[in-house]
Amino acid sequence: MSKQVPETIKKQAKRSFNSKEVKQEKNQKRMKLLKEIHEKAYKRAEKYEKEYLEQEQKLVELKQKALKEGSFYREPEPKLAFIIRIRGIVGVPPKPRKILQLLRLRRIYSGVFIRLNKSSLRMLHFIDPYVTWGYPDVETVRALIYKRGHARVNHQRKIIDSNEMIYDKLQKYDIVCMEDLVHEIFTVGKNFKHANSFLWAFKLKPPVGGFSTVKKSFVNKGEHGNREQYINTLVKKMI
Amino acid sequence: MTTQQLRPIVSVFPIKGKVKTIKQVPLPSVFSAPIRPDVVRFVHTNMAKNNRQAHAVSTTAGEQTSATSWGTGRAVARIPRVKGSGTGRSGQAAFGNMCRGGRMYAPKKVWRKWHRKINTNQKRYAVCSAIAATAVTPLVMSRGHRVNKLPELPLVVSDQLQSLTKTRQAVKFLKFIGAYRDVEKVIRTKKTRVGQGKYRNRRHVLRKGPMVVYARNLGIKKAFRNIPGVETASVYTLNLLKLAPGSQMGRFIIWTESAFKLLEDIYGSWEKPSKFKSGFYLPRPVMVNTDVERIIKSDQVQTVLRNRRPRSRKYGKKIQRADPYEDMSVMLKLNPYYKTKLQKQKELEEKNKEERKEIVDKSRKEYEDWLYFSEEEEEEEEEGSDEDREIEVLSDEN
Q1: Partner residue facing A42 (CB), from B297, B307, B336
Q2: Which of its termini does chain A have fewer beta carbons within 10 Å around, N or C?
Q3: Where are the beta strands (DSSP E) in chain B?
Q4: Under 8 Å CB-to-CB from A145, ≥6 apart: which residues?
Q5: Burial of B251 (0-12, 13-18, 19+ CB in 10 A)
Q6: Could you tell me which of A62, A99, A131, A82 has the C-alpha nearest to residue A233?
Q7: Gene3D superfamilies under this entry (chain A) (predicted)?
Q8: pLDDT higher than threshold 90 for residue A113
Q9: A227 within 8 A of A133, measured Cβ to Cβ
C-alpha cells in the first residue's frame, strides 16, 4: 500500500538544513573537530609543562649567576594578580564601588584575574580596603579555572565542561583547550583580555579557618591589601 | 485583489416543474467581500437601537409631596417626612429613591440618546459582509436554517417568482424548491413570549425563516406576506437587521434572478464602483490569502528562513560537572595530558628519592668515618696530656 506523501513534506525534505545527509555531514565534521581539539590539547599541555619548568629553572639560574658575580638579580615585576573581594556591599563609597564594579567584583568572595600595570595598580590602591590580592602561581590559576571556571556564553554563566566550549569562543585567539586558557592567563599573553573576559568572575567560598580581621591590612596582621605570594594559600582555603 | 479571480457560476432554478438549472449566472462580487462578524456586530447593535421609542418616568413621580426632614434629636432617620397628620401617610419617608413611594434614582428622561449614528461606510461594510455570509452554507446552517434539501446556495430563482400573487402559489413554490422545511420550523416553534411583552401586544415569538429578495414587486410581497417566518425585501434596500438577525450572519435568502444580477450594480466590485452608492467600492480584506499555514510552508518563505536554533538551555537543567581534581574522567576530558603528567611527576619523585637516598647514604658514611676517626684521635690525646692539665690548674688559682 503506497502512501501519498504531501507535496509540502516532500519539499521540506528537500530543503538543505533538514535533510539526513546534511545532519550526518555536520555530525562527522564535529566529531573530526573534537578529535583535533583533543590532540591539540594533549600536545599543548605537554608543551606548557615544559615551558613552566624551564621558566622556573631559568629564574634560579639567573639568581645563582648574579650571586656568583657578586651582584643582584632583580626579578621581573609580576604581571598577573588575582583579586578577591573580602568585604560586602553595604556602605561602600562611590569611587571604590565603581572600581569594584569595573573589575567585576560585585559580591563578597568573588575573584578575578587582572593584568598589572600602572593603571590597574592605581585602581587596586583605591579598593585595597575591600579586597585582598596577590600573585598567583600556576597551580592556583589551574585550580581556579578547572574547579571554579565558568564561561560567559550567550550572556549566561556556564561551567566549562569541555574544550569544545573554549574552542567555540576563543578559537580565533588560538586558545582551544583548558591548558591554553591557563597559559594565557598565567603568562598574561597577547590575548589575556579575551581569555579573561571569557571567564565569569570566580565565586569562591569563605575561607576555611576564617580571616583574622578584614579591617586591617595584611601587612598589619589583617587581611586586606596586597599579600603577594600568600594569595596562593588563601585561594586554597577558599576554592 | 481577491483570491477568487474567477467568478463562479450560480444556477437559476424555475419556480415550478422540475428542479433543474434553467440558466447560469455569474456570482456577484459582493459574495467575495470579507466576512467580518466584528463589524456586523458593531453595526447591528447600534442599528437596532434606531427603532426604539422614547420612554420615561413621569417628571413628578414621587415628588408630589411637601415632605420635610424632622431634623435631628427625634430618634428617627433624617429623611424628609410627609407633613400633616390624620392619615397613615403622614410621617412616612418621602422623596428618596430608597423610600417607599419616593422618586427613583436618576429618573429616566425622554431626552436620553435613543438612536445611534453609524458611519455610512461601516453600514455598507456590514451589509456586504452579511450578504457574503448568506452564500456560505455552514454559516447559514449554524444560524439555524434548514437548508439540507436545497439544490444550491445561494439560491437563485427565475423572475417569475416576482409575479406571484397568491399565498398558495408562494407556499407551493417553497415546497417545490425545498425551502418549506425552514417555514415548517418557524410554524412549529411559535411560542408565547417569555416576559412581560406578552401582555404588551407582543404575545408571540417567531423564528426567522427564509427571506425572499426581489427586484420588482409584481405581487410577490403580498404573496409571501402571510407565510410565517418569511420576509420579503427589495434588493435596493437590504436591511442588515434582516440579513443578520441578532447580529448573527447567514440568513437564508432566496434571490430572484434580476435581484441577484443587480447586486453587482448595487454594491459594485473592487474595480468598478457601485452605481447606486456614490464612490462606494467593495471593502478589501485585511488578508487576501488567509491560509496562513500554506503561506508559511510555501517555498518563497521557507527558503529565506534561517536555520532552527538549538533549544536553549536557559531555563532548563543546569549542567552538572564533577570536580576534575576528584574525578579523573572529567579531568581527562578537559586536559588529556593530565594522566601522563601525573605519571611523569611520579617518576621524577621516584628518581629524586633514589638520588636523595644515595646522597644521604654517602653523607652518613662520611659522618661515621669521621666519628670513628676522631675517636681514635681522642684516645691518643688522652694518653699524653698531663702537662697541659697542670698548667690549666695553675692558671685557675691565679
Answers
A1: B336
A2: N
A3: 9-13, 23-26, 68-69, 80-81, 155-157, 191-192, 204-205, 211-214, 231-234, 253-256
A4: A160, A178, A181, A182, A185, A199
A5: buried
A6: A82
A7: 1.10.15.30, Ribosomal protein L30, ferredoxin-like fold domain
A8: yes
A9: yes
**Partners of A224 in beta bridges:** A217
- In this structure, what C-alpha cell is assigned to residue A81? 594578580
**Whether pTM exceeds 0.95:** no
Q: Is there a contact between B331 and A41 if contact means CB atoms under 8 Å apart?
A: no
C-alpha cell of residue A160? 566549562
The chain B residue lying nearest A162, using CA atoms, is B334
Sequence-distant (6+) residues with CB within 8 A of A151 are A157, A158, A159, A160, A165, A166, A169, A198, A199, A200
What distance in Å separates the CA atoms of residue B333 and residue A45, rounded to the nearest whole number?
A: 13
CB contact under 8 A, B297 and A8: yes
Sheet holding A202-203, edge to edge: A202-203, A110-115, A80-85, A131-134, A225-226
d(CA B118, CA B125): 11
Amino acid at B177: I
Using the structure block, give the residue that is written with the C-alpha cell 661515621: B368
Identity at A92, one-letter amino acid code: V
3-state secondary structure B41-56: HHHHHHHHHHHCCCCC
Identity of the residue in B314, B324, B335 whose CB atom sits nearest the CB atom of A41 = B335
Q: For residue B115, give the C-alpha cell.
A: 438612536
With a cut of 60, say whether residue B166 has pLDDT above it: yes
Q: Exposed, middle or buried, B375 (CB in 10 Å: 0-12/13-18/19+)?
A: exposed
CA distances to A76, A186, A188, A229, B280 from A79, rounded to whole Å, are 9, 9, 7, 13, 81
Residue predicted with more confidence, B81 or A6: B81
Backbone phi and psi for residue B332, each to the nearest 5 degrees, phi listed first = -70, -30
Summarize pLDDT for A59-89 with one digit per residue, the tens: 999 999 999 999 999 999 999 999 999 999 9
Nearest to B240 by CA among B390, B50, B74: B50
State the smallest CA–CA distance between residue A8 and chain B in angstroms: 7
A145 near B CB under 8 A: no
Which of A138, A90, A86, A80 has the alpha carbon at shortest distance from A113? A80
The answer to whether the CB atoms of A179 and B337 lie below 8 A apart is yes
